[in-house]
Write a structure and sequence with these properties.
CATH topology of the largest domain in chain A: Beta-Lactamase
Order of helices and strands of chain B: HEHHEHEHEEEHEHEHHEEHHEH
Number of strands of chain A: 14
Strand content of chain A: 15-25%
Largest sheet of chain A: 7 strands, mixed
Number of domains of chain B: 2
Helix content of chain B: 40-55%
Shape of chain B: globular
Structural class of chain B: alpha/beta
Distance between the termini of chain A: 74 Å
Radius of gyration of chain B: 21 Å
Number of domains of chain A: 4
Oligomer: heterodimer
Strand order of the largest sheet of chain B: 2-1-3-10-4-11
Number of helices of chain B: 12
CATH architecture of the largest domain in chain B: 3-Layer(aba) Sandwich
CATH topology of the largest domain in chain B: D-Maltodextrin-Binding Protein, domain 2
CATH class of the largest domain in chain A: Alpha Beta
Helix content of chain A: 55-70%
Largest sheet of chain B: 6 strands, mixed
Strand content of chain B: 15-25%
Shape of chain A: rod-shaped
Structural class of chain A: alpha+beta
CATH superfamily of the largest domain in chain A: PAS domain
Chain lengths: 583, 275
């Protein structure tokens, strides 16, 4: 149990206040009692003087009148036998000492005390000296002085004082115990309530129920229990809802992963035959064909390329959506990327009677580090859109660069303006959403999946940039985006050397015949000496054979999926290790 | 602090000693023979004391003695300024100590013999062999009583002495003695109930009762004192005093009134000498 300072608990405060009040009251009571007792004892001490004097006087008046001092002496001696009288002395009206008992005749008498004051005696033998004039029927006859021994009274007073203090202390201790007990019984439910509240504060939202009752604290306990039950029910509801939401989220995530995986797989599976179609079409177009056959094959190629682009968009979107798209960080020449893209679309623009130009600021760095492929993809999408929605006029690209926040960083600002159909204001906000185009009519008229700008927006985000569009219907649109790149010095760029690939030995490994054949034909066109393998094991045998004949392969192309399918006993890592060992 | 208190105490003691010395010098001793109890004497003579204090301008105290013998001895020793005593002792003081006679009471002084009414003592012969009480061997009533016993041939009894009239009366009523001698005046001062229980068996002839004798050292003030005494008798207090004591007032001593007490004085002288 946590220690609580007495000053911070109601019980402790009540106890301290009660004990203080008790102490003050007892002190006052004891002090007053002692004062009264002292006063009473003073009176009692004084009363013997008042009682003794008349009796003595009555006894000695006659012998004094007779000057019978022997009798007076006898009376004094007899009176002194009474306990408490220390001495008695009689002097006559002339001041002569006529009788004395208990006091030396040659010793002067002490001064008489006027009153007994609080027993403030500092002598070892406290005494009250009393002097009483002796008169009889108005005639002065002398003086009687006597001393009362107060030691017993003072001892009694001291005893009373000590006993009073002791009783007061015992009373305070007993009161403190009683108050503690009373405080415990009064506040124990409050303490339980405090502990339960502290348990709630420390995270235990369903502490054990506290005691209930009809009094204030009992009702408070009942209210706390009700609140605790409500909280527990609410927590259970929230827990169930959270678990359900988690389950749904996990299910959705699993579904999304399944969808993405499915899309990636399907895209790959579709793209492989599509590559075969396009490759074979290209090969066929390189043969002798009639004009009609060539036209048909060109249409096949165009349709295939369109389909392949759609497939690529779907694949990219899936990768980005699944977070599987990794950016490259390689050096490249910025103007070359832009030039190559513009070059691709220049012919198409010219065919449509459009002007396609680009302009760069002088501060544009020559070489940067980044992902040229994704930058090219963004440009491709934006330019293809511009060409798609521009019937006449011009398309202009403006490229600028600003220093970034970090050293060596630059922020590329690229703007594509067209004089196309423009985008209605109410549609601008949705054009970067997937599967969205400004008008359904647009889709029907201009085609496309509606994924292009969504992919662009996500790629720009991956490049730590932003993308915006300004457009006016009938006047055109301006897309601009930024991308963070790393500036590099020209000397750091490794210039590509032009290689003569003729006679190089290449091995193509793919279980798909069409894909294997297309790639082999394309390599043949590049003057490679191509060997084909359908599986991993077959590839290993071919590599071993080539090595044995001292004619090892210079390059091996492996379709990783076909290896998984064909080489059950070997995974791709084992295969590559094997190949490297042989090479 | 202590020194100042010591000085104060010393000054106070000196003042007290000086005061007491003056008081001792100026105290006027009025001796009264113990004809009754000391308290009665003190009470009885307070009006006279106060008057004399005023008249003489000095402190006056009333004194008595344990018995007549001691009173006589002190008187002869010049210890009283005025001695109020019975006639026979007055004569003794006059002769032996040169006291000056002043005055006596108008009322006659008689000695009486008291018996209890309910006792068997109805006549002197009934007292044969019994114990009788006197006040003091040298008191006038005792001397008269002894004379009365001899006259009635009651010589085989015992004479004891009491301190005062009321005391001996009590003893008689208690049956401790058959008879008590006291003065008629003292008998009349007894409570009525006590008087009713007693009976006077014998009564003396009038005698010189209490006589005021002035010490010779106060001779110069005799006239003044005489005048003061008579003046007191005329005051309200004095009248009350004489009414209460039935002494009727003061009178001058008659010629040879004290000399008539000579036989009793002689006996007293012998008693005092014997003591």
């Amino acid at each position: 149990m946590k220690f609580v300072s007495p000053l911070r608990s109601i019980r402790g405060r009540l106890l301290i206040v009660a004990v203080l009040v008790e102490a003050v009251m007892l002190t006052a009571l004891v002090a007053n009692s002692l004062r009264l007792l002292t006063s009473l004892m003073e009176t009692q001490a004084h009363s013997p003087a008042e009682q003794i004097a008349p009796v003595l006087l009555a006894a000695i008046v006659a012998p004094l009148a007779q000057r019978d001092y022997a009798t007076v002496q006898a009376v004094l001696d007899e009176s002194r036998a009474v306990k408490g009288i220390e001495y008695l002395v009689i002097t006559d009206t002339s001041g002569h000492r006529q009788a004395a008992s208990g006091w030396p005749n040659n010793q002067p008498l002490p001064s008489a005390d006027r009153h007994i004051a609080h027993f403030d005696f500092d002598t070892q033998q406290p005494r009250h000296d009393v002097k009483v004039p002796i008169t009889a029927f108005g005639q002065p006859m002398g003086e009687l002085q006597f001393g009362l021994d107060l030691s017993q009274i003072i001892a009694a007073n001291n005893d009373l004082f000590k006993q009073g203090i002791l009783i007061a202390l015992i009373e305070i201790i007993l009161s403190a115990c009683l108050m503690s007990l009373l405080g415990y019984f009064l506040t124990r439910h409050l303490s339980a309530l405090t502990q339960a509240s502290e348990a709630v504060a420390s995270g235990n939202l369903t502490p054990p129920p506290v005691a209930e009752g009809n009094d204030d604290i009992g009702q408070l306990g009942a209210a706390f229990n009700a609140m605790s039950r409500t909280i527990a029910e609410r927590i259970e509801e929230l827990t169930l809802a959270r678990d359900e939401a988690k389950r749904l989220a996990q299910a959705a995530e699993a579904g999304a992963r399944a969808k993405t995986s499915f899309l990636a797989t399907m895209s790959h599976e579709i793209r492989t035959p599509m590559n075969g179609i396009l490759g074979m079409t290209d090969l066929t177009l390189d043969t002798e064909l009639t004009a009609e056959q060539r036209e048909y094959l060109n249409w096949v190629k165009i349709s295939g390329e369109s389909l392949l682009k759609i497939l690529n968009d779907i694949l990219d979107f899936s990768k980005i959506d699944a977070g599987h798209l990794n950016l490259e960080h390689i050096p490249f020449q910025l103007s070359e990327v832009i030039n190559s893209v513009v070059g691709i679309y220049s012919v198409e623009a010219s065919n449509h009677g459009l002007s396609l130009t680009w302009q760069a600021d002088n501060a544009l760095p020559a070489y940067v580090r980044g992902d040229p492929v994704r930058l090219r993809q963004i440009l491709n999408n934006l330019l293809s859109n511009a060409l798609k929605f521009t019937q006449q006029g011009a398309i202009h690209i403006h490229v600028a660069s600003r220093p970034g926040n970090k050293t060596g960083e630059c922020c590329l600002h690229l703007q594509i303006s067209d004089s196309g159909i423009g985008i209605p204001p109410d549609k601008i906000d949705m054009i970067f959403s997937p599967f969205a185009q400004a008008e359904s009519f647009t889709t029907r008229k201009y085609g496309g999946t509606g994924l292009g700008l969504s992919i662009v927006a996500q790629l720009v985000e991956l490049l730590e940039g932003t993308i915006r569009v300004e457009s006016e219907v009938g006047k055109g649109s301006t897309f601009w985006f930024t991308a963070k790149l790393n500036r590099i010095k020209e000397g750091e760029i490794v210039q590509k050397s032009t290689m003569d690939l003729r006679g190089y030995k290449a091995l193509v490994v793919d279980d798909n015949f069409t894909a294997r054949q297309v790639l082999s034909d394309q390599l043949n066109h590049l003057s490679f000496l191509v060997t084909q393998a359908e599986s991993g094991n077959e590839a290993i045998k071919a590599i071993e054979l080539a090595a044995k004949n001292h004619k090892p392969f210079d390059i091996v192309f492996i379709d990783w999926k076909s290896i998984k399918r064909s080489a059950k006993s070997l995974n791709e890592t084992d295969l590559i290790k094997k190949i490297l060992e042989i090479i | 602090m202590i020194i100042s208190r010591l000085i104060q105490s010393l000054i106070l003691m000196l003042c007290l000693q000086m005061g007491t010395a003056n008081a001792a010098d100026t105290i006027f001793h009025l001796g009264v023979a113990p004809h009754t109890s000391a308290r009665v004497i003190l009470e009885m003579y307070q009006p006279l004391r106060l008057y004399l204090e005023k008249a003489l301008g000095q402190t006056v105290i009333v004194e008595t003695a344990p018995d007549f013998t001691e009173f006589g001895r002190r008187a002869l020793n010049q210890e009283y300024d005025i001695a109020i005593t019975t006639g026979h002792q007055a004569r003794l003081y006059q002769v032996d100590a040169a006291y000056l006679p002043l005055i006596t009471y108008k009322a006659d002084f008689k000695a009486v013999a008291l018996v209890a009414k309910k006792s068997r003592y109805h006549k002197p012969a009934d007292l044969q062999g019994s114990t009788v009480l006197g006040l003091s061997p040298s008191s006038l009533v005792t001397l008269w009583g002894q004379h009365w016993l001899q006259k009635n041939n009651l010589n085989n009894g015992t004479v004891n002495y009491g301190s005062a009239a009321d005391s001996v009366s009590h003893q008689v009523l208690a049956g401790e003695a058959s008879l008590a001698f006291t003065s008629l005046a003292n008998y009349q001062k007894l409570p009525q109930e006590q008087q009713d229980a007693l009976k006077i068996l014998a009564e003396s002839e009038p005698m010189a009762g209490r006589v005021y004798m002035l010490n010779k050292r106060q001779a110069s003030q005799q006239a003044k004192i005489d005048q003061a005494l008579f003046a007191f008798a005329e005051t309200e207090e004095g009248k009350k005093y004489f009414t209460k004591t039935r002494l009727d007032g003061y009178r001058k001593l008659r010629p040879r009134e004290l000399e008539a007490m000579e036989p009793y004085a002689a006996k007293t002288r012998l008693l005092l000498k014997a003591k």
